[in-house]
Design goal:
By secondary structure, this protein is an alpha+beta fold. The chain has eight helices and 37 strands. Strand 25 and strand 26 form a beta hairpin.
Amino acid sequence: MFILYRIGILLDSLTIQAWQVEAIRKLLSTGLVEFSVLVVNQSPKPSGRPSPFLYRVYRKLDRIFFKDDLDAFESVPLSKVISSKVPVLSTKPIQTKYRDSFSDKDIEKIASYDLDIVIRFGFRILSGEILKVPKLGVWSYHHGDPKVYRGGPPAFWEVMKQIPATGCVLMRLNEKLDKGEILYESHTQTDPLSVQRNANRIFWASAAFPARVVREIDRLGMAGWCLNVASKAIDFSAPLLKPPQTRSMLRMGTNLFLRNLKRKTREQFKAPHWDIGWISDLSINRRLISTRGAQLIKREDGNKYYLADPFPIFYQGRLWVFVEQFDKKRKKGIIAIMDEEGNCAPVIEEEWHLSYPFVWEENGAFWMLPESAEAGKLWLYQAISFPFKWERKQELFSEEAYDPTLWKTEQGYWLFVNQKSHPACSPFDELSLYFSKSLSQPSWQSHSRNPIVSDVRSSRPAGSLFEENGKFYRPAQDSEKRYGHRIRVMEVKSLSLDSYREEEAYRIEPNEKEGTLGIHTMNRIGDRRIFDFYSRK
């Protein structure tokens, strides 16, 4: 039976921020919800004392220098997204030092709307009967990982304390501040330079969370979802932080400036460099690798181009490696082929950037599915004279997608791709999965849990899936510390249109003491594992 979930929103004003408007739009796009009431705080009160002066100066300057064109915090009238026919209930909460609660009269009014969900976009810490009114609870954001820190300011401490990833959760509230039920969580790479940019990205990303949870409720049913959520309740014991006092802000601001001056100086004088090489018989215990322990493919054009994303294939007794060849001057990638001696030749060039040349042989033909996110779609190529001549065969996927990785099973083809939930979000954070019985006439079904991974530490594909000792593995990039820092090899435990589960099997780390700063693609061929090695020279 079709159900519309009835939603109420708690607000401090009928003008909200752009990311909140996006969250409402995404909820409406599910076709599963209706907004039944807007509860507006007539006397909003700050959550605590005013922030220290130097902190406020820093945030103002940060916003001036690093404001994004797609500003998550732009003020937008709620009428842009919600009909004026939705009732507005003005209330005066019962206020203590830090908490807000509702009078019995207001609780009775709110309860009369028979709400399934209440979303908190306003008010302070909530307590009392309001937490019991909606059948599925009061949902609230914490823009930060509550397992790392609690309190605020959002996205601030990760930058100042150099925490590599910034988390964000959507929670179901209860009376206990140190215990909660996480409904959805995600992690993105922390911006090392700016709190403003860091916050902008994580707030935009979080706009998708409520819609994803509603889809999960619809899939599992209310009772099944409630049992599932209750089993995930955790205790939060992380430090409770607040805006820094003047002395701390001065120290942290100075450290931030010096740290990033050093970073910019290093980037100015040491250019990024990629090497392609392999390691034979990488044993289960050998997880720390560098160019010193690898057999590198030597080449002469390293000053003009770098090569990355190696995909090897044997043909007529020879090893060929397809790579992204990135022109440093033009800032554009093409697909090239190289042999073991380092001879390199272009094979596919388009008007748009190409990378990640996923290549395979099937039914006597060679096929390639490179990344073409800049074009906003994926194209399938077929070799007409392998390995040097290819033709664009057909459009395979009509959405922007990063690092497309196919996995063929008896049922058909699974397509793993990274996608952005919003144009301001990072392409490193979220992995989606699609299925089609055929590639000749593809009809892609989106996985019911898309995105199946929302974590910069294990989302982006890092090469072909492979089987080893009867188990299936997915190499994943971990870009928490930096882009393409290391590889997590994830064991695929469950794969169907209704379920996906994976667990980390092991990690392959760059040996930074030997100068290797990153490895972001791994493919297997015979007893070799071929990598791209990132350094600065």
